[in-house]
Amino acid sequence: MPQLPDGDPAPHDGRLPAASLSAMRGGTFSLYLHVPYCSVRCGYCDFNTYTLTELGDATGASLATWVDGVAAELDLAVDVLTADGGAPPVVDTVFVGGGTPSLLGADDLGRALGVVRQRFEAAPDWEVTTEANPDQVDEAFTTALARAGYTRLSVGMQSAVPHVLATLDRTHDPRNVERAVAAAQSADLAVSVDLIHGTPGESLADWRTSVEAALALRPDHVSAYALTIEEGTALHRRVARGELPRPSEDDQADKYELADDLLTGAGYAWYELSNWARTERGRCRHNEHYWDGGHWWGVGPGAHSHVGGTRFWNVKHPRAWAQRLASGSPAEAREVLTPEQVTEERVMLGIRRREGLPVEDVPDAGRQAVAGLVAAGLLEGVPAVRDRRLVLTRRGRLLADRVTWGLLGL
Ligand SMILES: C[S@@+](CC[C@H](N)C(=O)[O-])C[C@H]1O[C@@H](n2cnc3c(N)ncnc32)[C@H](O)[C@@H]1O
Ligand code: SF4
Asked: What are the residue boundaries of the Radical SAM core domain, all occurrences included (predicted)?
């Protein structure tokens, strides 16, 4: 997880600058609900999540009281977002992520969406996603989710190969992925599967097996991430001790290209570096709003938010979150983005999209790099450049960071 800056202190009542509220009006608005619980901690993961044993009897921090906390934070969000006298923004997308949201069960996930609906107007065709562990998904679960208003399920598949799953500490039975996806499809939920490549010990053939297994399920959407070995994780320690080999950049590049070949061959188109969809509607609209600089309120421990150029983030521990909510805002700190930060984000996120980055968004310092990046085969030439959009070639997708630095004149 990227390290957040220290930021400025956040006001106790959570209020936002008037300019941020007015910048929010007319833009897209989303809600992210963070579920900070997992049954076990996977060795590679540094997300803000806690096992139930770790939490012990932490007051107010349990699964059982999560929805109450969400309701309290949403009350605060409505107060803050209507402080200018306007109506609460219409919610275009909701994403329940974790952690392991499916640990809550369908009833609590339904209740959480209910508390959103009581406070905000939903866009007529809103997208509502929850992440799920395949072991916790059956038809009763997906039918209840669909009835509650969910439209999309994101299944953490990661790999179809037992030794790879074991290295990742994934405890789910790979056969349950098939059951989970079928259950979601029979409830008319759109389905996404998450895969990870580059796990130590994973061969190219293993990775092919995983991508082919995912494709056999005909999901609407596939995310394929290169494994990052995050400092402070058990996997990082095992790699540092030499117990496991560090994945090489060449291996990751070969796996990215193989995934892109297999996915494209099966009719999926990339629309962001690590994301492919079978149709335009199959894209994750929620993530697209993040990448487009949309506005969102992140509810829950450690969740972060962006409203009209102000970024703020909550205290991480579920107990601290619950305690702060009892008397005000759970935000730990915030920062008002500078014009330079806005430009950097726009370049960094925009260049990862298939639609590309409008040339106008490139700062003066990076404009002269464009011709060289096209000549080096990292950016498409005509017709993209003629349309004043900078689009990564496939080689460019493998070297997206280098392209970003070039465009920022670094
Ligand atoms: C944090 S998880 C939450 C969903 C669910 N708990 C799960 O694990 O499937 C969301 C996704 O992030 C990705 N992820 C987590 N840690 C990662 C890492 N170190 N490197 C690459 N991807 C990672 C995984 O693909 C995972 O499905
Ligand atoms: S289940 Fe997901 S969120 Fe939980 S520890 Fe594993 S990867 Fe992280």
From this structure: 23-269
